[in-house]
Write the C-alpha coordinates for this entry.
Amino acid sequence: LTYSAENFLTRRFSRSEDSESEVVTIFFLILIIRLGVYAYAEYIIHKRRKMNNSLKLIAFDGDDTLWEDISFYQEAVKNITEILGKYADTTSIPEDLYKTEVENISVLGYGAKSFTISMIETAIRLSSQKIHPGDIQEIIAIGKSVVSHPIRLLPDVREVLTCLSSHYRLMLVTKGDFYEQKAKISHSGLSDYFAYIEIVSEKDEHAYSEILERYSIAPENFMMIGNSLRSDVVPVLNIAGNAVHIPHKFTWYHEQVSGDIQKEYSELKGIRELPGLINSKIIYTV
Protein backbone atom coordinates (compact mmCIF):
# COMPACT_ATOMS: atom_id res chain seq x y z
CA LEU A 1 0.00 0.00 0.00
CA THR A 2 2.84 2.39 0.87
CA TYR A 3 4.65 1.61 -2.38
CA SER A 4 1.49 2.16 -4.48
CA ALA A 5 0.78 5.53 -2.86
CA GLU A 6 4.37 6.70 -3.26
CA ASN A 7 4.48 5.55 -6.89
CA PHE A 8 1.27 7.40 -7.71
CA LEU A 9 2.41 10.61 -6.07
CA THR A 10 5.84 10.44 -7.68
CA ARG A 11 4.39 10.02 -11.18
CA ARG A 12 1.78 12.71 -10.54
CA PHE A 13 4.30 15.38 -9.52
CA SER A 14 7.45 14.39 -11.42
CA ARG A 15 6.79 16.24 -14.69
CA SER A 16 9.41 18.81 -15.66
CA GLU A 17 6.93 21.66 -15.58
CA ASP A 18 6.15 21.01 -11.89
CA SER A 19 7.20 23.84 -9.62
CA GLU A 20 9.66 23.49 -6.79
CA SER A 21 6.83 23.87 -4.26
CA GLU A 22 5.05 20.88 -5.75
CA VAL A 23 8.18 18.76 -5.46
CA VAL A 24 8.49 19.73 -1.82
CA THR A 25 4.84 18.85 -1.31
CA ILE A 26 5.25 15.35 -2.72
CA PHE A 27 8.34 14.82 -0.60
CA PHE A 28 6.46 15.61 2.60
CA LEU A 29 3.43 13.54 1.55
CA ILE A 30 5.61 10.48 1.03
CA LEU A 31 7.36 11.15 4.33
CA ILE A 32 4.03 11.38 6.16
CA ILE A 33 2.81 8.14 4.59
CA ARG A 34 5.95 6.30 5.61
CA LEU A 35 5.91 7.64 9.14
CA GLY A 36 2.24 6.73 9.49
CA VAL A 37 2.81 3.17 8.33
CA TYR A 38 5.83 2.72 10.61
CA ALA A 39 3.97 4.19 13.57
CA TYR A 40 1.00 1.86 13.02
CA ALA A 41 3.31 -1.15 12.70
CA GLU A 42 5.03 -0.23 15.95
CA TYR A 43 1.64 0.20 17.64
CA ILE A 44 0.48 -3.28 16.57
CA ILE A 45 3.74 -4.88 17.65
CA HIS A 46 3.60 -3.09 21.01
CA LYS A 47 -0.01 -4.11 21.64
CA ARG A 48 0.67 -7.72 20.77
CA ARG A 49 3.70 -7.80 23.03
CA LYS A 50 1.65 -6.20 25.78
CA MET A 51 -1.16 -8.74 25.41
CA ASN A 52 1.29 -11.63 25.28
CA ASN A 53 2.78 -10.44 28.56
CA SER A 54 -0.44 -9.33 30.24
CA LEU A 55 -1.76 -12.76 31.23
CA LYS A 56 0.73 -13.76 33.91
CA LEU A 57 -1.34 -16.23 35.90
CA ILE A 58 -4.26 -18.49 34.93
CA ALA A 59 -6.16 -20.09 37.81
CA PHE A 60 -8.61 -22.98 37.79
CA ASP A 61 -11.31 -24.09 40.17
CA GLY A 62 -11.26 -27.80 41.05
CA ASP A 63 -14.70 -29.21 41.92
CA ASP A 64 -16.94 -29.50 38.84
CA THR A 65 -14.42 -27.59 36.72
CA LEU A 66 -11.57 -30.10 36.56
CA TRP A 67 -13.23 -33.11 38.19
CA GLU A 68 -16.75 -34.33 38.94
CA ASP A 69 -18.08 -33.48 42.41
CA ILE A 70 -21.69 -32.36 42.67
CA SER A 71 -23.11 -35.60 41.28
CA PHE A 72 -21.84 -37.47 44.37
CA TYR A 73 -23.65 -34.99 46.62
CA GLN A 74 -26.79 -35.38 44.55
CA GLU A 75 -26.61 -39.14 45.04
CA ALA A 76 -26.18 -38.58 48.78
CA VAL A 77 -29.27 -36.36 48.92
CA LYS A 78 -31.24 -39.05 47.09
CA ASN A 79 -30.09 -41.70 49.58
CA ILE A 80 -30.86 -39.68 52.73
CA THR A 81 -34.27 -38.78 51.30
CA GLU A 82 -35.05 -42.49 51.05
CA ILE A 83 -33.91 -43.08 54.63
CA LEU A 84 -35.93 -40.17 56.03
CA GLY A 85 -39.03 -41.08 54.03
CA LYS A 86 -40.25 -43.13 56.99
CA TYR A 87 -40.12 -40.03 59.22
CA ALA A 88 -41.14 -37.08 57.02
CA ASP A 89 -42.59 -35.96 53.70
CA THR A 90 -39.89 -36.71 51.10
CA THR A 91 -40.75 -33.66 48.98
CA SER A 92 -39.45 -31.26 51.63
CA ILE A 93 -36.31 -33.16 52.68
CA PRO A 94 -33.86 -31.78 50.04
CA GLU A 95 -34.88 -28.17 50.76
CA ASP A 96 -34.64 -28.68 54.53
CA LEU A 97 -31.19 -30.19 54.11
CA TYR A 98 -30.05 -27.31 51.91
CA LYS A 99 -31.18 -24.73 54.48
CA THR A 100 -29.27 -26.58 57.19
CA GLU A 101 -26.14 -26.69 55.00
CA VAL A 102 -26.23 -22.94 54.39
CA GLU A 103 -26.76 -22.21 58.09
CA ASN A 104 -23.72 -24.33 58.93
CA ILE A 105 -21.31 -22.80 56.40
CA SER A 106 -20.26 -19.96 58.70
CA VAL A 107 -19.35 -22.48 61.42
CA LEU A 108 -18.37 -25.66 59.57
CA GLY A 109 -17.34 -24.37 56.17
CA TYR A 110 -17.72 -26.40 52.97
CA GLY A 111 -17.12 -30.04 52.20
CA ALA A 112 -18.27 -33.54 53.02
CA LYS A 113 -17.74 -33.25 56.79
CA SER A 114 -19.99 -30.20 57.01
CA PHE A 115 -22.47 -31.92 54.69
CA THR A 116 -22.55 -35.05 56.87
CA ILE A 117 -23.23 -33.07 60.05
CA SER A 118 -25.97 -31.17 58.21
CA MET A 119 -27.55 -34.48 57.13
CA ILE A 120 -27.55 -35.76 60.71
CA GLU A 121 -29.02 -32.51 62.06
CA THR A 122 -31.73 -32.59 59.40
CA ALA A 123 -32.53 -36.23 60.17
CA ILE A 124 -32.84 -35.58 63.91
CA ARG A 125 -35.06 -32.53 63.37
CA LEU A 126 -37.38 -34.05 60.74
CA SER A 127 -37.80 -37.26 62.76
CA SER A 128 -38.59 -35.26 65.93
CA GLN A 129 -35.51 -36.92 67.49
CA LYS A 130 -36.98 -40.39 66.90
CA ILE A 131 -34.59 -41.53 64.18
CA HIS A 132 -33.17 -45.01 64.74
CA PRO A 133 -29.44 -45.25 65.51
CA GLY A 134 -29.08 -47.63 62.57
CA ASP A 135 -30.40 -44.93 60.25
CA ILE A 136 -27.91 -42.44 61.70
CA GLN A 137 -25.15 -44.95 60.94
CA GLU A 138 -26.37 -45.20 57.36
CA ILE A 139 -26.30 -41.41 57.01
CA ILE A 140 -22.71 -41.31 58.29
CA ALA A 141 -21.81 -43.94 55.67
CA ILE A 142 -23.43 -41.76 52.99
CA GLY A 143 -21.28 -38.83 54.11
CA LYS A 144 -18.12 -40.93 53.94
CA SER A 145 -19.01 -42.12 50.46
CA VAL A 146 -18.93 -38.52 49.22
CA VAL A 147 -15.22 -38.21 50.04
CA SER A 148 -14.15 -41.79 49.33
CA HIS A 149 -15.25 -41.93 45.69
CA PRO A 150 -12.55 -42.08 42.99
CA ILE A 151 -11.71 -38.80 41.28
CA ARG A 152 -13.27 -38.58 37.83
CA LEU A 153 -11.75 -35.93 35.59
CA LEU A 154 -14.09 -34.00 33.33
CA PRO A 155 -13.63 -34.29 29.53
CA ASP A 156 -10.56 -32.65 27.91
CA VAL A 157 -9.14 -31.41 31.23
CA ARG A 158 -5.75 -33.10 31.02
CA GLU A 159 -5.24 -32.12 27.37
CA VAL A 160 -6.05 -28.46 28.02
CA LEU A 161 -3.81 -28.26 31.09
CA THR A 162 -0.99 -29.87 29.10
CA CYS A 163 -1.40 -27.24 26.39
CA LEU A 164 -1.65 -24.20 28.67
CA SER A 165 1.01 -25.20 31.20
CA SER A 166 3.67 -25.09 28.47
CA HIS A 167 2.96 -21.37 27.88
CA TYR A 168 1.57 -19.95 31.14
CA ARG A 169 1.90 -20.26 34.89
CA LEU A 170 -1.14 -22.12 36.18
CA MET A 171 -2.71 -22.05 39.62
CA LEU A 172 -5.36 -24.20 41.27
CA VAL A 173 -7.71 -22.30 43.59
CA THR A 174 -10.13 -24.63 45.31
CA LYS A 175 -12.56 -24.07 48.18
CA GLY A 176 -13.44 -26.37 51.06
CA ASP A 177 -11.99 -28.51 53.82
CA PHE A 178 -8.19 -28.44 53.59
CA TYR A 179 -7.51 -32.16 53.99
CA GLU A 180 -10.43 -33.16 51.78
CA GLN A 181 -9.34 -30.85 48.97
CA LYS A 182 -5.70 -31.87 49.37
CA ALA A 183 -6.70 -35.52 48.92
CA LYS A 184 -8.75 -34.70 45.81
CA ILE A 185 -5.84 -32.82 44.27
CA SER A 186 -3.46 -35.68 45.00
CA HIS A 187 -5.79 -38.34 43.62
CA SER A 188 -6.60 -36.27 40.52
CA GLY A 189 -3.06 -36.63 39.20
CA LEU A 190 -3.07 -32.98 38.08
CA SER A 191 -0.71 -31.44 40.64
CA ASP A 192 2.27 -31.24 38.31
CA TYR A 193 0.42 -28.90 35.93
CA PHE A 194 0.17 -26.16 38.57
CA ALA A 195 2.91 -23.83 39.67
CA TYR A 196 0.81 -22.86 42.72
CA ILE A 197 -2.04 -24.49 44.64
CA GLU A 198 -4.31 -22.51 46.98
CA ILE A 199 -6.98 -24.07 49.21
CA VAL A 200 -9.25 -21.42 50.68
CA SER A 201 -12.22 -21.48 53.06
CA GLU A 202 -14.14 -18.98 50.92
CA LYS A 203 -13.77 -17.51 47.45
CA ASP A 204 -14.50 -13.83 47.77
CA GLU A 205 -12.85 -10.53 46.86
CA HIS A 206 -10.67 -10.63 49.97
CA ALA A 207 -9.40 -14.15 49.27
CA TYR A 208 -8.51 -13.38 45.65
CA SER A 209 -6.85 -10.09 46.58
CA GLU A 210 -4.70 -11.85 49.16
CA ILE A 211 -3.64 -14.47 46.63
CA LEU A 212 -2.68 -11.90 44.00
CA GLU A 213 -0.77 -9.83 46.54
CA ARG A 214 1.09 -12.93 47.73
CA TYR A 215 2.32 -13.67 44.20
CA SER A 216 2.73 -10.01 43.15
CA ILE A 217 0.17 -10.31 40.34
CA ALA A 218 -1.97 -7.36 39.24
CA PRO A 219 -5.69 -8.20 38.82
CA GLU A 220 -5.62 -7.33 35.10
CA ASN A 221 -2.87 -9.95 34.65
CA PHE A 222 -4.97 -12.67 36.31
CA MET A 223 -7.61 -14.98 34.84
CA MET A 224 -9.88 -17.31 36.85
CA ILE A 225 -11.70 -20.24 35.25
CA GLY A 226 -14.52 -22.07 37.02
CA ASN A 227 -18.08 -23.36 37.01
CA SER A 228 -19.45 -21.06 39.73
CA LEU A 229 -20.56 -17.52 38.99
CA ARG A 230 -20.72 -16.79 42.72
CA SER A 231 -17.23 -18.06 43.58
CA ASP A 232 -15.17 -18.04 40.38
CA VAL A 233 -16.52 -15.12 38.36
CA VAL A 234 -18.17 -12.30 40.31
CA PRO A 235 -15.51 -11.75 43.02
CA VAL A 236 -12.73 -11.79 40.40
CA LEU A 237 -14.56 -9.23 38.27
CA ASN A 238 -15.09 -7.09 41.34
CA ILE A 239 -11.32 -6.74 41.83
CA ALA A 240 -10.82 -5.95 38.09
CA GLY A 241 -9.57 -9.41 37.15
CA ASN A 242 -10.52 -11.61 34.17
CA ALA A 243 -12.99 -14.48 34.52
CA VAL A 244 -14.17 -17.38 32.38
CA HIS A 245 -17.34 -19.27 33.26
CA ILE A 246 -17.58 -22.93 32.22
CA PRO A 247 -20.99 -24.08 33.50
CA HIS A 248 -21.42 -27.60 34.82
CA LYS A 249 -24.68 -29.35 33.95
CA PHE A 250 -25.59 -29.14 37.64
CA THR A 251 -24.96 -26.23 40.02
CA TRP A 252 -25.44 -26.20 43.78
CA TYR A 253 -28.11 -23.67 44.76
CA HIS A 254 -25.67 -21.79 46.97
CA GLU A 255 -23.34 -21.12 44.02
CA GLN A 256 -26.02 -19.61 41.80
CA VAL A 257 -26.31 -15.87 41.19
CA SER A 258 -29.61 -14.04 40.77
CA GLY A 259 -29.85 -11.20 38.28
CA ASP A 260 -27.50 -10.11 35.53
CA ILE A 261 -23.77 -9.62 35.98
CA GLN A 262 -22.96 -6.14 34.72
CA LYS A 263 -19.24 -6.65 34.17
CA GLU A 264 -17.82 -8.43 31.14
CA TYR A 265 -16.69 -12.05 31.33
CA SER A 266 -16.43 -15.00 28.95
CA GLU A 267 -18.58 -18.13 28.99
CA LEU A 268 -17.61 -21.38 27.28
CA LYS A 269 -19.48 -24.60 26.58
CA GLY A 270 -16.50 -26.68 27.63
CA ILE A 271 -12.91 -26.42 28.77
CA ARG A 272 -11.62 -27.52 25.35
CA GLU A 273 -12.57 -24.03 24.05
CA LEU A 274 -10.30 -22.29 26.57
CA PRO A 275 -6.98 -22.25 24.63
CA GLY A 276 -8.75 -20.74 21.62
CA LEU A 277 -10.34 -18.07 23.79
CA ILE A 278 -7.02 -17.12 25.36
CA ASN A 279 -5.27 -16.99 21.99
CA SER A 280 -8.02 -14.84 20.48
CA LYS A 281 -7.76 -12.35 23.34
CA ILE A 282 -3.99 -12.17 22.97
CA ILE A 283 -4.10 -11.54 19.23
CA TYR A 284 -7.10 -9.30 18.84
CA THR A 285 -7.71 -7.46 22.08
CA VAL A 286 -6.66 -3.79 21.92
Summary: Residues 43-52, 282-286 have pLDDT under 50 and may be disordered. The chain has eleven helices and six strands. Residues 20-54 form the longest helix (35 residues).
